[in-house]
């Protein structure tokens, strides 16, 4: 079977999980049954003196459990907010569906989908855009499928089959050469998981859900390690033509995935993998999914993620591997970009960030970072306006989709590992001046942000 990501990322990803997940998974989980509100409300926050930017504007106050009581277990893959602040969660499991929750986090209903959802968004006209397995869909607000079409990059990928074949064979050889490092990375990850499991067993009932998840992860690591040894070890046989064809088919299926979908009302934009190599491209289509053309190419992303969000100000891309946000016009011409590698508030930290984007009032752009769960707010030309706060998410290189409600008082972040959405509620008004001008004298800002002071 083909390993579907560059082998270097596999090793780095395993090592990262081994080093950072132990702390997060060992902590007592927040209550994931229903939304639990904090006492401070947005109204109380707005009664405070003007914010200086030295405090985050929001703090995590609740969790929305996508697997609410009475619902079958499913894996949430993506989410977005409707204009009335209802939450839509794209789920896969026993069936593919969109689960709908009201603005208080209470489950309302589900819409069946013909494909496993990989991306979901709301168009300006209130219709739902969804993508999965190389297909694009438009649904009405009540879940009726209005239109479907093949993603525009699908034909290009099929036409590039020979390039994919060459790349797949080369990657297989590279992975064989990297076998010792990969096995060492799995051993390290399993050692950390053993510690987690021991800690969670001591927690009893409080840690049962994460204990189950940790044990399942341990089994998957063991199986993957054995598969590695079988495919790339000393006793591995030369690839047969049948195996090569299977690997190419698997690689093509992976490349068919749609990382994100968005619309400015005039067009639909999708981000997806390029036919050859590991880069990403943005395609532009008409609202009825026709006349697709590639407008941006060569974007660098990690872990299958490349978030594109469009509005009247342009097309914004979270180019996570290059630590920046890029802004294009609707034809793909560069307008501006911002960001740098930094753990401080002036940049984006961890492995690959920003991972996701969302829009707020007055065209502001919210950025989301995996591992730390940090959310920041920028002007559409990259001026840092405020640090929103940090959600408690399981660390790792993964999708952390965000949404902002109609008032700006609630911000939501997906925790794809725990199958929930964290809710951050306002505790301070937005600063009147950009944060970059207001925090230089505060040496304890990061401590305050992460609740360490």
Automatic annotation (TrEMBL):
Keyword Coiled coil tagged: yes
From what superkingdom does this record's organism come? Bacteria
Please name the SUPFAM superfamilies in this protein's record: Calcium-dependent phosphotriesterase (SSF63829)
The record's listing under Gene3D superfamilies reads: TolB, C-terminal domain
Write down the InterPro entries for this protein, in alphabetical order: 6-blade_b-propeller_TolB-like
Which keywords describe this protein according to UniProt? Coiled coil
Q: Which residues form a coiled coil?
A: 157-242
Record protein name field? SMP-30/Gluconolaconase/LRE-like region
Identify the species of origin.
Lacipirellula limnantheis
């Amino acid at each position: 079977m083909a390993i579907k990501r560059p082998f270097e990322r596999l090793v780095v990803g395993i090592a990262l999980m081994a080093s950072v997940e132990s702390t997060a998974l060992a902590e007592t989980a927040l209550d994931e049954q229903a939304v639990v509100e904090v006492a401070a409300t947005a109204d109380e926050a707005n009664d405070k003196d003007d914010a200086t930017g030295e405090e985050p504007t929001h703090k995590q106050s609740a969790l929305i459990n996508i697997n609410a009581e009475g619902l079958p277990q499913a894996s949430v893959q993506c989410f977005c907010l409707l204009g009335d602040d209802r939450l839509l969660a794209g789920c896969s499991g026993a069936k593919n569906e969109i689960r709908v929750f009201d603005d208080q986090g209470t489950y309302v209903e589900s819409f069946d989908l013909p494909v496993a959802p990989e991306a979901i968004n709301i168009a300006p006209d209130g219709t739902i855009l969804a993508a999965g397995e190389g297909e694009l869909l438009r649904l009405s607000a009540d879940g009726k499928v209005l239109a479907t079409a093949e993603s525009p990059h699908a034909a290009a990928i099929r036409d590039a089959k020979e390039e994919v074949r060459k790349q797949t064979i080369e990657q297989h050889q590279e992975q064989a050469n990297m076998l010792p490092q990969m096995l060492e990375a799995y051993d390290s990850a399993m050692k950390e998981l053993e510690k987690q499991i021991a800690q969670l067993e001591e927690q009893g009932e409080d840690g049962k859900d994460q204990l189950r998840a940790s044990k399942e992860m341990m089994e998957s690591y063991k199986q993957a390690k054995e598969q590695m040894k079988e495919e790339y070890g000393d006793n591995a046989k030369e690839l047969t033509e049948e195996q090569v064809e299977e690997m190419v088919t698997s690689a093509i299926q992976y490349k068919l995935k749609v990382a994100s979908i968005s619309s400015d009302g005039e067009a639909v934009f999708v981000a997806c993998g390029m036919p050859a190599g590991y880069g990403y491209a943005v395609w532009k289509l008409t609202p009825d999914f026709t006349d697709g053309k590639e407008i941006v190419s060569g974007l660098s992303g990690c872990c299958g993620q490349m978030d594109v969000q469009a509005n009247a100000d342009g097309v914004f891309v979270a180019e996570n591997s290059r630590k920046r946000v890029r802004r294009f016009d609707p034809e793909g011409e560069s307008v501006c970009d911002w960001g740098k590698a930094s753990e401080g508030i002036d940049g984006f930290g961890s492995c690959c960030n920003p991972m996701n984007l969302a829009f707020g009032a007055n065209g502001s752009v919210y950025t989301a970072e995996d591992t730390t769960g940090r959310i920041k707010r920028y002007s559409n030309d990259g001026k840092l306006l405020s640090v929103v706060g940090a959600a408690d998410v399981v660390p790792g290189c993964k999708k952390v989709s965000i949404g902002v409600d109609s008032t700006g008082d609630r911000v939501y972040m997906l925790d794809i590992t725990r199958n929930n959405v964290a809710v951050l509620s306002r505790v301070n008004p937005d600063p009147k001046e950009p944060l970059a001008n207001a925090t230089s004298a505060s040496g304890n800002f990061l401590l305050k942000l992460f609740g360490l002071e």
